[in-house]
Amino acid sequence: MTPSAAERNSPRWRSEDKLPGWVGAICLASLAFFLRRWNLGTPHAFSFDETYYAKDAWSLLNHGYVLRYVEDADKTILNGNVTGLWLDEPSMIVHPEVGKWLIAAGIKVFGMDPTGWRMASAIRRPARDWGSALGLSNSSSRSLAGIRPPEALPHASRLSLTA
Predict the structure, then answer these.
(1) How much is the pLDDT for 21?
(2) What is the value of pTM for the model shown?
């Protein structure tokens, strides 16, 4: 007997138990966090926009607003010294403040080094992956939330292909 159109349109497997989806999502997020955290401080250098974000975040954390910094501040920071690098004048703000505050939180916890200023991204990305995994770990993200995906069109169940 040929299955109905509704049966053919339904997912190949459907589980009423949400636990496998949650466990899979948590495992995937944990793996993503581990891989992004591993060697986070390498290279021990500023990469692209980090030179602006990290120094602005440190300034926000310690002064409450973004200050300009002296020439060659990057080398001094990478050598472990963060004193005497900021001038007593505000800097032009060209990047979003929320991102800099998140970077400042990483600097507060892990210090003013590459690990500290990269930690915000290392945490945010696995959180994004975890959300994506929830959507991919079961037939749809709606089913994890307890909302069933729409079935086939009402008239499709009446269709029957017989030989």
Answers:
(1) 76
(2) 0.63
